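Example 321.
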Amino acid sequence: MAEIGQDIAKAKVLLEKGELVAIPTETVYGLAANALNPGAAASIFEAKNRPSFDPLIIHTDSVDKINQWVAEIPEALTLLAEKFWPGPLTLLLPRKSIIPDIVTSGLDRVAVRIPSHPLTLELLKTLDFPLAAPSANPFGYISPTSAEHVNKQLGDQIPYVLDGGPCQVGLESTIVGIEEGKVIVYRLGGLDVREIEAFVGPVKVKTHSSSNPSAPGLLESHYAPRKPFVVGDVISLLPQFLDKGKKVGALTLSEIFTEIPESDQIQLSARRDLKEAAANLFSAMRSLDELELDVILAEWMPNEGLGKAMNDRLQRASVKA
Ligand code: TXA
Ligand code: MG
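Predicted structure in complex with magnesium ion:
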């Protein structure tokens, strides 16, 4: 198991040596390495068992630093950066050649984010290189929202987990770029698209990988629990599993089902608050995955704002590779 603590100096020394450190962010925990060191970046792929065509996001603490690594920040994206950084927003920007190919999977753009977690911001301030950091989970599994989640799954492969408590947002960042002058959203995430539109006008949402080579990481099956995971109208799904004597768990926004034990169901937000629900989503999926169940049934979230990003995660969690 990795050591867990809040020692920024220790994290810095390890990262400078090219080693991996898990870091807290407001979205999910990241598995970080020096993004300018191709060997260090390669060990991220190895630890996560991640395919090399899936590019990494780099993290830093200031736009000044970002200018060393990207050719320009288009005006519309500058507006978004000023408004939403630090925060759950990732921008795709034209990279300079100092960014290694392994980080972008050879693409011309590099994904950049200034996260808002105070501990990680403090760490980033002390570094003169950006941190490449994907979510700190084995490839394809649910993203981690606590230091314990990271340690359970990747603890054997990393020396240190910087513990910043539970993640406040709980969904990965919203990924945004520009094509022919138009703002495009490539991944729905912790920043509501409506907030983006309030600043730059209507945007195009262009998710899903097979038809979208510029976001190769958006694979159809992802965020998946190990147990069968079915999304839909739980009440009408229940009989077909209960009639066969299956042990069923349920994941809902606020509903409670009398047909199954209370301990086998999780409500994400009793007051139906989508922010609260999003912050609880991944940890609830993990908890249910750890119970003795045959199947997990999940209710779709209201399809608006963060609910859309949550539905995207539920959808992909339910697709078996
Ligand atoms: O909130 C987050 O974004 C978290 C925290 C740790 O910052 N990170 C995260 O990273 O979710 P990851 O690796 O799990 O997802 C990164 C995704 C890739 O799968 C891909 O879809 C997209 O970001 N991406 C990264 N670089 C890209 C690029 N150059 N062009 C297009 N898409 C890119
Ligand atoms: Mg991920």
